[in-house]
Amino acid sequence: MVRTIRSVRTPIAALVLAALAAACAAATPTPAPTPTPTPPYGLPPLVLPADEAPHDFSTEWWYFNVHLWSEDGRRYTLHDVVFQIQELGSSRTLYVRQAGFADVSAGTHATAERVRSEPEPLSEQAGVFRAGFGDLFISAQDGRRYRLVGEVGATAYDLTLLATTEPLLHHDDGLVDFKEAGITYYYSRPRLDVSGTVTPAGGTAVAVNGLGWMDRQWGNFQPVAIGWDWASVQLDDGTDLMLTRVFDAGGVTVESYATLRQGDGPARLLSVGEFTFAPAGPTWTSERTGTSYATIWRVAVPGAVDELTLEPLVGGNEFVSAARGLVYWEAGVEARASDGRVVGQGFVELNWPLGATP
User: Taking all residues of the chain, what is their mean pLDDT, rounded to a whole number?
Assistant: First the structure.
């Protein structure tokens, strides 16, 4: 997902952001830990919900994307991520929160970034974290419940997210080898029921509900130049799909795979040749960075997912980080079938070299 490897382009940190720690109260019982198969890298297996909490790794993040609909008929999209970064050559740990909020009805997109260098006290409760930035925070509890309280520009939001399906472990055991860039733990919560409020600039809070996706990654990444294409797709028939391609500074693919789950079925790891994930059409060129991003993408899994077109809901979805030198494209998209019907939604994230073209 986003997530970790672009800050790798900066000399200060190993990847790109990720989040923090924290607290909590709550007297609800913690679910029994669910261990995964022992991975082949000599690393301990992923255990949930315990691994929702922070770890002592160079880079870690908690990422969410959300599609929202309001009672008054408006539509919004949001991506919200917190990174925890151990800086190279420094004992300092940074906590960086980045968010992009789109008012689809108005055709607008805005971004926000907040940074802090002191952690909050870590919770002793397994699977709990709270990343606080003043009164704004991201929190998680018991592996199924999350809360996002944030502001982007003059728009505020307070959202509660509840996982309705089991976690999606990538590469079967939740460990992905990015070769010289390092090994990362990686899983998703692909179906989150979302409810809460959005308060537009100068307005009053309106009730919203929708569908969210959560990505969780952490690892000791190496400072090498890497970029990526990534997408999450949630289809109306209950199919969830994550697709990604990671590439080196010369554009050579380091890793490319997808994870598919249809309804309540098992997760299926897809290798190159078993899926399509490719740009298809117009580009958008950033006036700030000169980068031209492919805005429309084709997705297909033969025998499981007929060809889809992922189309952005608004234009101009670039995020430029003042704190980390990180630049990426992050867009809420509609998934359309070949006959033009909207059959789902998702997000596309692109981390390309500055000034790049498809």
Answer: 86
Classify each residue of 226-250 as buried b or exposed e, where b means 16 or more C-beta atoms within 10 Å of its C-beta.
bbbbbbbbbbeeebbbbbbbbbbee
For residues 243 and 51, what is the distance between their CA atoms, to the nearest angstrom? 23
**What CA–CA distance (Å, rounded) separates 333 from 342?**
10
Which backbone phi and psi does 304 adopt, to 5 degrees? -135, -45
With beta carbons less than 8 A apart as the criterion, state whether 191 and 66 touch. Answer: no
Is residue 257 within 8 A of residue 244, CB to CB? The reply is yes
pLDDT in tens, 282-337: 999 999 999 999 999 999 999 999 999 999 999 999 999 987 778 999 999 999 99
Tell me the torsion sign for CA atoms 184, 240, 95, 35: negative
Q: How far is CA 263 from CA 81, 167, 241, 271, in A?
A: 26, 13, 11, 20
The structural domains of the chain, with segments of one domain joined by +, span 7-351
- Measured CA distances, 324 to 8, 25, 54, 328 (Å): 10, 32, 21, 12
| Helix/strand/coil percent split, the chain, to 5 | 5, 55, 45
CATH number of the 7-351 domain: 2.40.370.10
